[in-house]
Each structure stands twice: as structure tokens, then as C-alpha cells.
Amino acid sequence: MDERVFWLAWHYILAGQSQRFWEIINYFASPEEAWFAAEKDFLFLKGLHRRDVSNLLLRRQRTDLSEVASWLMDNRFSVLLFNDCRYPEQLKNIFDPPPALYMRGDARLLTGVSVALVGSRKATGYGLNVAEKLARELAEAEIKVISGMARGVDTAAHRGAISASGVTIAVLGCGIDVVYPRENEKLMYGIIDNGGAVVSEFPPGSPPEAWHFPVRNRVISGLSKAVVVVEAAERSGALITAHVALDQGREVMAVPGNITNKLSQGPNNLIKQGAVPVTSTSDILEGLGLGLIFAPDAGRGEQNLSLSVNEKKIFSLIEYEPVSLEILVQKSGLPPGEVMTGLMFLEIKGCVKQMPGKLYYRTG
């Protein structure tokens, strides 16, 4: 039988327990060898009594390998195993990466620059408006928005990205064929239909158990370059995500709030501890080293300004992520002097800005 089936079968048995999975896989020569090993061969597992090992192997005995194999062939979703070339590189580098991911959508969406927006399920109107606005403007800047599809801030973030026809990714605490909460069924299919993705480390059919959500938070932050907390009480899942993000070396940001509101205590405390305060989308982009998103009322550069043929050509090659002068010369096919002249006029017209090292990014 395909080695991938044994890998996925162990993941099925130990879904959400990635550290235990890696302990077993690293001990045996292969997942297949582990699958057929005797009970005495598992006594090396740390913190488990013999009865726990017996229960583990009972679950192994009850697992239908043919059903597991069918998931690899199911065209309704993709299965990304850890050693699959499509598995996101940034997630591989966290402390306890999921051995497998189930996904609806294009696996390529899990690469590149993404920002996670997280917060309270019981967000205020202010929190919901801020989350939706930030997500919409990030999507307009072609930044992918990641959240957990929960009620409140998560839902507002996904909706904001969709409203700008941007890409948003939902990381679930249940199977990708399970809608939770139920009222987000339309949102879930909206995410997929709009070119986004739904991801989970939990196998198809897995219910939304309470312990799944803290576990999935490390995936939200692991897939992101930065985590922005909008509203959160002092003890909340959003703060768990923020602290996990710090451990993973991700940028942590927070939206300041009313000091009399309990839901502002979480982000306000994060700011006191050194998180980047977010009062506009520009703060997020600048925190990522991408410069200003755009001047809200200035239009979109060439749409409202008269640009020469060369200026239009150069401007079309510049995105919100800085690009070097050398790359612009190479891609435009223009002489260096003409590129530099075009960049000078684009700066004067407010379309682009220059960073140290002759790097340029668009502002509109």
C-alpha cells in the first residue's frame, strides 16, 4: 500500500496531536513499520502508561486504511502531506507543524504574504467595522487575509476581503466538510467561490470540539507573516494566537481600543508589551516593510494622472512589495537613464516611493 496512506492514517489517529505523531514517526523507520509494530515497541512514548498505548493501538486497529486511501483520491479537496512539495514552507518551520493539511482551494494560496486578523467572537460594532475595513484594504493591496471563520472578528475579516474581491483563507477547528458555526455556511462557500481557501489539519467529518481551536491557532499564525488582534478579552483564543505567533517569530500587531471596554484589554496589553499599534492599514503594511498602502482619496496612480508611455510601463512593474532599480531596468527593457527619469516623475506624481538601496514601491 502507498506509504502516504500509512502517514495519513497515523495523522488521522493523532489529529491535533502533532508532537505525538512526530515522536512515533521519528522513532520508527517508516509509518508503515510503525503501523505493524507490536505494543511493546511503543513503550518508548513519553508520558503514556501501558493502557494509553493499548488505547492508541486499538484506534489503529479500528482505522479503515481503504477509507484513508480514498481521501488521497477525493477530488473535492486536496491532502497536503508534510513532505509534499505543495506543503507551505513557512508552516514547516514552526515548532510542531501539522503532519498533513486538508484543503479546499489552490495550495499555492498558502505561500506569499498573508496577514491574520483575529479577535473576539463577541466583538463590538467598532471591532467588526475595523476588522472588515482592515481586511478590505489589505485585500485591495493584494495581501491575503487569514482568519478562523468563527463568529465576530473572524467573520468580519473574511467578509471584508471578499468585498474587495481579495483572497481570504479560513483555518478551521473541524473538518473542511463541516460548517461551523452553521450560520457561516454561505460565507464558507463565498470564500471558496471567490478564489480563497478553507484549510484544516483535522480529517473530514471531524466535529468542532473545544480543544481543536487552540490547536488550530498555531496554523493561523504559522501561515501568516503578521497577526493583528482587533478585540480580545484578557484570556481569549486571539491572545493565544498572538503569543504563538511571537514564539514562531511572526510580527504581532494590535488595534488599540477604549480602555473601559473589556474587549480592549487584550490588544491594549499587547501594545504595552511591544506589539505594533494599528490605527490604519498603512501601519500593517509598514510593519511588513511594504510601505504605505495608498492615499484613500488619491485614486490609483495612473487612473487619475497623465502618465507617459514609459511611466505607465514602469508603473505596471511596481507593486506594494519593494522592487529594485535593476529589476525594473531588466523587466522594462528600457535604458537605465530612462527608467530613472520615469521613476523620478512617478515619485513627483505620488505614484511610487523610494526606499534606501534604490528600492521602489507603489503608493497608489
TrEMBL record:
GO terms for biological process: DNA-mediated transformation. Transmembrane segments: none annotated. SUPFAM superfamilies: MCP/YpsA-like (SSF102405). InterPro entries: DprA, DprA_WH, DrpA_SLOG, WH-like_DNA-bd_sf. Pfam families: DNA_processg_A (PF02481), WHD_DprA (PF17782). It comes from the Bacteria. Residues 307-358 form the DprA winged helix domain. Residues 79-288 form the Smf/DprA SLOG domain. Belongs to the DprA/Smf family. This is DNA processing protein.
